[in-house]
Each structure stands twice: as C-alpha cells, then as structure tokens.
Amino acid sequence: MERSESKKLLNKIWQIFLPLILGAAILVWTYKGFDFERVYSVLSDGVNYWWMLFSLVFGVLGHLFRGWRWNLSLAPLGEHPKLSNSVYAIFVSYAANLVIPRVGEVSRCGILAKYDGVSFSKSLGTVVTERIIDSLCVVVITCFTLLLQSGVFAKFIKETGTDSSFVFHLFTSTNFYITNICIIALIVLAFFMFSKLSIFVRVKCILNDIWMGCMSLRRVENMSLFIFYTLGIWLCYFLQFYVTFFSFDFSSDLGLMAGLVMFVVGSIAVIVPTPNGAGPWHFAIITMMMMYGVSKDDAGIFALLVHGIQTFLLILLGIYGLVALPLTNKQYKTKNS
C-alpha cells in the first residue's frame, strides 16, 4: 500500500516538474547569450502598453466564447450549468495548465461537478470533442496559411532581404536539438494520455458517458451559434497575438500575413507539454520573426514580454475564477433558498 502511494506521489512530482524542467531548458537554450538588460530599457520606453492592454481584451473574450460554447455542448446531455460557472471553470482550467500541462481539462469538469452537479464523465466527453474541433481548426488555419504563403514566399524573401544563409541557420545544431526535444516531448505526452485512457476503458459506464459527451455535438440545438463561438474563439486568439505587434516599433509593420504565420507556428508549439508552451513557443516565435527580418535580440524581447504578459493574464483570470466561484454560487443558493 505504501509502495503504491509512493509511486503515485512520484508520478505527481514528475507531472509537475518535468514540464517545468523541459520548458526551462529550452528557454535557457533559446536565450543563451541574450542581453537581458535590453528588456528593462524596452519596458521603460519601448512598449506601447495601450496596444498590449487592447490585446488582452481579446484574450478574455476568447475564454468567454469558450465557456459559452461549452454550455451549448452540455445542453443535449441534459446538463445545464450556470453560464458564469462554465466561464469561471475555463478561467481556472487555463491557470491550472500552468502548473501541470493538460490538467485543466480535468479540473474544469470537476468544477462543474462540484457546483452544478454536472456528470464528470459526460462533461469530459464534451472536452474531448472540443479538443478535436480545436485540432481541426489549427489544421484548417495552417493549410490556409500555407496556401497563401506559397504564392508570396519568393516575394517575401526578396523584400525582407532573407538569403540562403538563413536556411542554413535554421538547421544549426541548437535549433535541430530543440526541435527534436519538442517532438520527443509530444510523443511522451501522447503515450501518457493513452495510458490514462486505458483506466477509463476498464469502467464501461464511464466510457459510455464520455462517448455520449463526444456525441453531444450532433444534438446541439443552435449549431449556428456553436460555429459562431468557435470562429470567435480562434479569431480572438489570433487578434490577441497579432495586436501585440503594434506594441513594438520593430514589429509594427510586419503585416497580417506574418502575424498569421507566427500564430500558426505558435499554436503548434504550445502543444508541447510545458507551462503555457513556455520554451517551445519562444523558440518558434523567435525563429519565425528572424525569418521576417527582425533581429534575434528584438525577437527575443517580443517573445519574452508577450508570453509573460499573456501568462500573467491567465494567472489573474484563474485567481478571479477561484474567488468568484464560491461567492457567486453562495449568493445563488441564498437567493433560491
């Protein structure tokens, strides 16, 4: 018994610290030799904070759309949680992912189970469906971006002054090793997820509830609204990133296409199991910004500040959700008692 408990504790420790170690290692590698003193000078007089604050509005709005969409997915299952609880659960889930990557999907189901009595396994099924839809959205956006880029790539190389030496730079040992580390991490994550899934397979009723949650999409009453929320989520995610370009002089003229390319690459990078994609996201954005003619130091500053501020937003929203959930539900119970 003690051995089993020790094994569980060890697994928990690995789940927390391994992503942190991986993210930190890639960050250290990416920012090797970086002049961090420049960050302070840029923070003092090189950032337009109004644009940065405006970008965060889209970050909050994207979470709201996700919470509202979740309620639409749950309704066909006979589950009708408070709309505010669904939104707060989303807030908390993204903050939880900063501690243990991918644990947020489980935590938000637990929140609705606690405050609204929503079936945990059914809500988990809707989350699985969400992730499939999100993956399809990333694939569509990626294909769309590649299609657009295929016609302008030659012109882009000429206008930005990029030459063949940059291609060689992309395949230096550092970039090669970081890319392979990220791929290995994704394989480990996939193995971990499949091993966890086998636990559910052993319990037939739970598996059935999850399947019902996955199939709930077919019975959504207002499919137009569901599609609108889905488009709204990804438009907000893109605008949250793209608007930050205008916060810095060196990125303000990069253009919409550059923003779309970097958004796609960044969206793929955050799949790597590190807190909010820290490390892989920085590496991807810095590499792509350099491809568009931005210096490595400027690209490093952009990635560091934008990721830091967006992560801080997730922490604030998570704290707000944790505080608001018991308060609003206490008021609701008092009002209806």
Can you describe this structure in just a few lines?
It is built from 13 helices and no strands. With 337 residues, it is mainly alpha-helical.
Question: Keyphrases for this structure?
Answer:
globular, mainly alpha
Task: Characterize the structure shown.
The structure is a single chain. With 337 residues, this protein is mostly helical. The chain has helices at 2-30, 37-45, 49-74, 83-99, 104-116, 120-160, 164-170, 173-201, 204-215, 223-242, 256-269, 280-291, 296-336. Helix 11 (256-269) packs antiparallel against helix 12. Residues 152-164 and 197-205 have low confidence and may be disordered.
**Ranges with pLDDT <50 over ≥5 residues?**
152-164, 197-205
Count of distinct structural domains: 1
Number of helices: 13
Helix content: over 70%
